Amino acid sequence: MSATDTIFALASGAGRGAVAILRVSGSSSGAILAAMAGRLPAPRVAGLRRLRDPGTRETLDQALVLWFPGPRSYTGEDSVELHLHGGPAVIAAVAGALTALGARPAEAGEFTRRAFLNGRMDLTAAEGVADLIAAETEAQRRQALRQANGALAALYGGWAARLTRLLAHQEAAIEFAEDDLPTDLCDRARTGAAGLRGEIEAHLADGGRGERLREGLLVAILGAPNAGKSSLLNALVGREVAIVSARAGTTRDVVEVRLALAGVPITLADTAGLREAGDEIEQEGIRRARSRAEEADLVLTVFAADATPDAETLRWVGPDAMVLANKADLVPAPAMIGGVEALAVSALTGAGLDALRARLTESAARLAGASDAALLTRPRHRAALTEVVAWLGDAETAVMPELASEAFRAALRALGRLTGRVGVEDILDVVFADFCIGK
Ligand SMILES: Nc1nc2c(ncn2[C@@H]2O[C@H](COP(=O)(O)OP(=O)(O)OP(=O)(O)O)[C@@H](O)[C@H]2O)c(=O)[nH]1
Ligand SMILES: [K+]
Ligand SMILES: [Mg+2]
């Protein structure tokens, strides 16, 4: 598999459709299009063409074709789009012709990988493209689109440029210590490092919202047997997803449903009622309930209003929990449980469920909702930036200019791994631009 092959792939969804789009990229794209369609249309303007089999000259389809000469294409290479009639036989015939003309099927992500390699986007933008395709909700779409359009690339690219400048200053201070360059270069680098570190730390202190929005929230419903957990799950999604019965210990496995609130995808998990008794199977269910609750971004801790709060469930009253007093139709619900305000609800009558939905929506928005800021979205981003912060701290406290220099270099490498680009040439450019050393 060579990166210089001409590749093709179905860009539209698989199966029957009105239109199917085959995308071709690589240096032979133009020649392949000419062999199949005759005259090339003007760049980036759709043209109607008969596509012919290169061997038999049989017409395979009448198609709209587009010609994108590089570098002004998605991949940066010469590219072609074929808008075909969307039947499987048409697609297969045209794909066969493309193969006969020397193109090969693309691997997963290969178009975007080429776009990255050709400098059309940085790594974070490429990730944004992947997220955009995977986006299930409005808020996810917005976040992914922003990243695909280069919001993180711009932010991190700006930091890399500043870091490069700091390194250049530091290097100049070492190299030209005898010359009449400003003697406070080291101090300036140190101050600059502290400023940059502060900005990156502020970016990191986002409560994990971007990552949570990308992955979706996990909300676990926890409580004693018969508190009404499964009834609540069903009432919240408006379907009989989980089995409800008057027998304690009905739910054994974790039952999960997907929903979206505030544009945030949520997995709502109903779990086995917490208690010491029960058979082996129920105990395994309870173990799973606890482990799901531990992973959860938010726990709905459910008590039955007509029962004394049990110690087992009271342990799950905390800062990441929302306390519910269910069965409020039976008795007046306590205002507080375990020292925390309890929301009175009834899965049976639906009372309080609107308030619960509003509280959940609020939490979803707070934990992961859409933001105008460019948020980091992957653990990879967090790890790299945390490393940059540590190196900047080292640069600030370095006892020798050479050590500060090394720390700046390491910070730049970490940032370069994040965006997928960093070069020594950049550093040389800045040194010469800033100080006119050859003069
Ligand atoms: N009156 C009243 N009954 C309810 C309410 N919610 C649930 N129930 C009843 O309480 C019983 C238990 O409900 P479930 O939803 O199965 O309770 P659970 O917490 O999932 O129970 P386990 O799965 O056994 O842990 C059923 O008979 C429900 O009909 C409510 O708000 N009011
Ligand atoms: K039950
Ligand atoms: Mg249940």
UniProtKB/TrEMBL annotation:
<keyword id="KW-0479">Metal-binding</keyword>
<feature type="domain" description="TrmE-type G">
    <location>
        <begin position="216"/>
        <end position="365"/>
    </location>
</feature>
<dbReference type="InterPro" id="IPR006073">
    <property type="entry name" value="GTP-bd"/>
</dbReference>
<dbReference type="InterPro" id="IPR004520">
    <property type="entry name" value="GTPase_MnmE"/>
</dbReference>
<feature type="binding site">
    <location>
        <position position="23"/>
    </location>
    <ligand>
        <name>(6S)-5-formyl-5,6,7,8-tetrahydrofolate</name>
    </ligand>
</feature>
<comment type="subunit">
    <text>Homodimer. Heterotetramer of two MnmE and two MnmG subunits.</text>
</comment>
<dbReference type="InterPro" id="IPR031168">
    <property type="entry name" value="G_TrmE"/>
</dbReference>
<feature type="binding site">
    <location>
        <position position="439"/>
    </location>
    <ligand>
        <name>(6S)-5-formyl-5,6,7,8-tetrahydrofolate</name>
    </ligand>
</feature>
<keyword id="KW-0963">Cytoplasm</keyword>
<feature type="binding site">
    <location>
        <position position="81"/>
    </location>
    <ligand>
        <name>(6S)-5-formyl-5,6,7,8-tetrahydrofolate</name>
    </ligand>
</feature>
<comment type="similarity">
    <text>Belongs to the TRAFAC class TrmE-Era-EngA-EngB-Septin-like GTPase superfamily. TrmE GTPase family.</text>
</comment>
<dbReference type="InterPro" id="IPR018948">
    <property type="entry name" value="GTP-bd_TrmE_N"/>
</dbReference>
<dbReference type="Pfam" id="PF12631">
    <property type="entry name" value="MnmE_helical"/>
</dbReference>
<dbReference type="Pfam" id="PF10396">
    <property type="entry name" value="TrmE_N"/>
</dbReference>
<dbReference type="Pfam" id="PF01926">
    <property type="entry name" value="MMR_HSR1"/>
</dbReference>
<feature type="binding site">
    <location>
        <position position="230"/>
    </location>
    <ligand>
        <name>Mg(2+)</name>
    </ligand>
</feature>
<dbReference type="InterPro" id="IPR005225">
    <property type="entry name" value="Small_GTP-bd"/>
</dbReference>
<comment type="function">
    <text>Exhibits a very high intrinsic GTPase hydrolysis rate. Involved in the addition of a carboxymethylaminomethyl (cmnm) group at the wobble position (U34) of certain tRNAs, forming tRNA-cmnm(5)s(2)U34.</text>
</comment>
<dbReference type="InterPro" id="IPR025867">
    <property type="entry name" value="MnmE_helical"/>
</dbReference>
<feature type="binding site">
    <location>
        <position position="251"/>
    </location>
    <ligand>
        <name>Mg(2+)</name>
    </ligand>
</feature>
<dbReference type="InterPro" id="IPR027368">
    <property type="entry name" value="MnmE_dom2"/>
</dbReference>
<keyword id="KW-0378">Hydrolase</keyword>
<feature type="binding site">
    <location>
        <position position="120"/>
    </location>
    <ligand>
        <name>(6S)-5-formyl-5,6,7,8-tetrahydrofolate</name>
    </ligand>
</feature>
<protein>
    <recommendedName>
        <fullName>tRNA modification GTPase MnmE</fullName>
        <ecNumber>3.6.-.-</ecNumber>
    </recommendedName>
</protein>
<feature type="binding site">
    <location>
        <begin position="245"/>
        <end position="251"/>
    </location>
    <ligand>
        <name>GTP</name>
    </ligand>
</feature>
<dbReference type="InterPro" id="IPR027266">
    <property type="entry name" value="TrmE/GcvT-like"/>
</dbReference>
<keyword id="KW-0342">GTP-binding</keyword>
<keyword id="KW-0630">Potassium</keyword>
<feature type="binding site">
    <location>
        <begin position="326"/>
        <end position="329"/>
    </location>
    <ligand>
        <name>GTP</name>
    </ligand>
</feature>
<keyword id="KW-0819">tRNA processing</keyword>
<feature type="binding site">
    <location>
        <begin position="226"/>
        <end position="231"/>
    </location>
    <ligand>
        <name>GTP</name>
    </ligand>
</feature>
<feature type="binding site">
    <location>
        <begin position="270"/>
        <end position="273"/>
    </location>
    <ligand>
        <name>GTP</name>
    </ligand>
</feature>
<keyword id="KW-0547">Nucleotide-binding</keyword>
<keyword id="KW-0460">Magnesium</keyword>
<dbReference type="InterPro" id="IPR027417">
    <property type="entry name" value="P-loop_NTPase"/>
</dbReference>
